[in-house]
Write a structure and sequence with these properties.
It contains eleven helices and eight strands. The chain is an alpha/beta fold. The protein has a single domain (2-215), classed as TIM Barrel, CATH 3.20.20. Strands 1-2-3-4-5-6-7-8 form an eight-stranded parallel beta barrel, surrounded by seven helices. Helix 5 links the parallel strand 4 and strand 5 (104-109). The termini are far apart. Bound molecules: SN-glycerol-3-phosphate (G3P). The site of SN-glycerol-3-phosphate has 10 residues, from helix 7.
Length: 217
């Protein structure tokens, strides 16, 4: 499973990229707003730090507006992917952009039907939002499982980016059910490498070593 960062925070991206853990980055208007920087500058900067795909979202509501924005944003760097919200206009835009060779990430996917339509329209990626499905009392992970089955049934090459990841369990389950990518927000980063028993183990090794050194005196 590839590991994307779901953030527009440059410092965090630099840190995780330096660890070799960043296969790509996803952003959205909320994340750009949180980072408090200019959209174009931020996307260009991220695209220069990360070799992999960097998703930047359009704000237009009609297919025409989305395509116009997308063509412009796609020129900012070679590794930019255009994030297009799901819907009739979004599907039209994805079809046009895919014919032009512009990569797209169809976002706000909440059903198998939406995922399948986006894939058939030519989306490079689809982004089902696990956490937001859990929020309304349904099972977000089941959507990832079902999308995996459907894309495989028909040999569709669209990749599944599991998004709206809130917990370590989400991340681990995504790997178990075959998401191609998990995009992880900053507050979940450290949960991926931390474990209480690891900390306890290190403390015990340190104590045992100290005892051994004292016994040699
Ligand atoms: O990638 C989608 C993500 O940014 C949304 O996450 O936690 O607001 O549902 P969340």
């Amino acid at each position: 499973m590839k590991f994307f960062l779901d953030t527009a925070d440059i410092k965090q991206i630099e840190e995780i990229a330096a660890m070799g853990l960043c296969d790509g980055v996803t952003t959205n208007p909320t994340l750009i707003g949180k980072a408090g920087q200019d959209f174009e500058e931020t996307i260009k900067k991220i695209a220069s730090i990360v070799d992999g795909p960097v998703s930047a979202e359009v704000l237009g509501k009609s297919a025409e507006d989305m395509v116009t924005e997308a063509r412009d944003i796609a020129k900012w760097a070679d590794n930019i992917v255009i994030k297009i919200p799901m819907g009739k206009e979004g599907l039209k835009a994805i079809k046009t952009l895919s014919k032009e060779g512009i990569k797209t990430n169809c976002t706000l996917i909440f059903s198998v039907a939406q995922g399948l339509l986006a894939a058939k329209a030519g989306a490079t990626y689809i982004s089902p939002f696990i956490g937001r499905i859990d929020d309304i009392g349904q099972d977000g992970m089941e959507l990832i499982e079902n999308l995996r089955i459907v894309l495989d049934n028909y040999g569709l090459e669209t990749e599944i980016i599991a998004a709206s990841i809130r917990t370590l369990a989400h991340f681990e389950q995504c790997a178990l059910v075959g998401a191609d990518i998990a995009t992880v927000p900053s507050d979940v980063f450290s949960k991926l490498w931390d474990h209480l028993l690891t900390d306890v183990g290190i403390a015990r090794f340190d104590k045992d070593w100290e005892d051994y050194q004292n016994s040699l005196k």
